[in-house]
Amino acid sequence: MLKVEHLSYEAEENGIRRRILSDVSFTVEDGEMLVVTGPNGGGKSTAANLIMGIETPSQGRIWLDGREITDMSIDERAIEGIGFAFQQPPRFKGLTVSRLLSLAAGRELAGKECCSLLKAVGLCGKEYKDREVDNTLSGGEMKRIEIATVFAKKHKLSIFDEPEAGIDLWSFSMLIKQFEKMHREKKESILLISHQERIIRMADRIMVIKDGAVQKIGKKEEMLPSLMIGDAGSCTCMQHRGGAGNETGCSDE
Amino acid sequence: MKLDAVTSRILKFIDERGFRQKGAFNLRYNGQAVCHGDTENIRIVKKKDNPGIDVYISGGTKGEEIHIPVVVAASGMTDVVYNDFYVEDGADVIIVAGCAIHNDGCNEARHDGIHSFHVGKNAAVRYEEKHYGEGEGTGEKILNPATKIYMGENSVFTLDTAQIKGVDSTVRETYVEAGKNARLYVTEKLMTHGEQSAISNMEVQLNGDDSSAQIVSRSVARGRSSQVFHPKAVGNALCHAHIQCDSIIMDQARVSSIPEINANYLDAQIIHEAAIGRINSAQLIKLRTFGLTESEAEAVIIEDFLK
């Protein structure tokens, strides 16, 4: 179980100290899927980065399975069992897709294993495993490979930051099936940042982060009606079925 | 011939295919050719006027390997060697060269390998050259290769060079003339550290119609080392050339990339791309999310970048 308590984060922009996240508390239970949604710039990715240790909180504590991880480094948190798929994954010259997946798995993967991971994100293993993770790959291909890196290993908690962004509809459908499978198996907790209706509908609970604070958190059944009608207080930029692009319907920022 | 332990060990660094005293081979050790072998298609002849060898590769050669490593294990030695390769029309050959210096003394140890390749029509040559230095002494380890390649019609030449580690100073000179429909592929990999310096000058003259060159240079400069790249492509006919130089710079190192592209013909298409930069922090973070420490992540990035 992930437990986040009173998490705050401040950053300096143009010499001015700005609070990005303020007193955020929530949990992700074992086997639970928590979908985090809300307007762009609201602090969702910052919260995810703080959990992974990519940013350091100005206040607050984080626990994973009862063990405090607040002061742990990124790699220590990875070893503790957190997996992370970036919204904009980096490219690597010289590093092949199969090598990246093996590094993610923490062991040398056989060709078949690489193919199976790539298939899960809609890519042909034979075609991609020996390609370099460089700018010869499109943004959508990069994104799918990024998601496959998290699938490469079992985690206590897997974090996906807008997995739908930049992915075509066919691949998106495959991805949804993978998330549904993960969720069904309930072997790991999932924290998924998304604006996508189909993803939001998969959640056990939904959390809305806006203006750096948790605006609402609750069971899907309780949260969905207000999200669907997009009431003024909880505009989440939700994209509807079939819209896996970068568009957001929100203009309240 | 039985090789000593140091020679056997360091040969493995420069000849990853595995040096064996079988087939076509020539081992040069401290300025002397100590063993050699010919095959039905490949003849290695000791030069009479200069130190070095002439290698004659017949048109019937198909996929055969020639191993011609050099080992310098004497402090204070300057070894200059002239090797000329005559590749007949239609031959298909892999040449594995390279030099390893083991210097335990306080004087410099140096090897200048001056090579020329005369590549016939429709011939295919893959030339692999790795450089490596080691030793407990304070004497410098210096390697200065000079390579001239003359490519005949429809020939293919793949030049794969790597400076693995331990070379204090290197000046590499490469000159290529490409004939009609000749295709040149160059991969240059270089790692410098400490106070080391490396200079690589390359000139490619694309003289024949439909000739092409693809040159990829990747380097990592660490410590206070310095690197200078000066690739030059000259299009004298309907031709294509693409030069790509990428360098990772670390610590207090210095890297210069000085592209030069010249077109002397209307239909010459020549492109140069160059990039120098530190290791991207996003790359480090990504690998750390797999459980690698920062230094492990850095090592992976460098290793794969140079692979």
UniProtKB/TrEMBL annotation, chain A:
UniProt KW RNA-binding keyword: no
Stored SMART domains: AAA
Highest taxon in the source lineage: Bacteria
Molecular-function GO terms, alphabetical: ATP binding; ATP hydrolysis activity
InterPro entries for the chain: AAA+_ATPase, ABC_transporter-like_ATP-bd, ABC_transporter-like_CS, Molybdenum_import_ModC, P-loop_NTPase
Domain ABC transporter: 2-236
Alphabetized UniProt keyword annotations: ATP-binding, Nucleotide-binding
Matches recorded under Pfam families: ABC_tran
Protein name per UniProt: Fe-S cluster assembly ATP-binding protein
UniProtKB/TrEMBL annotation, chain B:
Protein name as annotated: SUF system FeS cluster assembly SufBD core domain-containing protein
SUPFAM superfamilies the record matches: Stabilizer of iron transporter SufD
Pfam families: SUFBD_core (PF01458)
Coiled coil: none
Native species: Murimonas intestini
Similarity comment: Belongs to the iron-sulfur cluster assembly SufBD family.
BP GO annotations: iron-sulfur cluster assembly
Family matches, as InterPro entries: Fe-S_cluster_assembly_SufBD, SUF_FeS_clus_asmbl_SufBD_core, SUF_FeS_clus_asmbl_SufBD_sf
Residue stretches making up the SUF system FeS cluster assembly SufBD core domain: 86-305
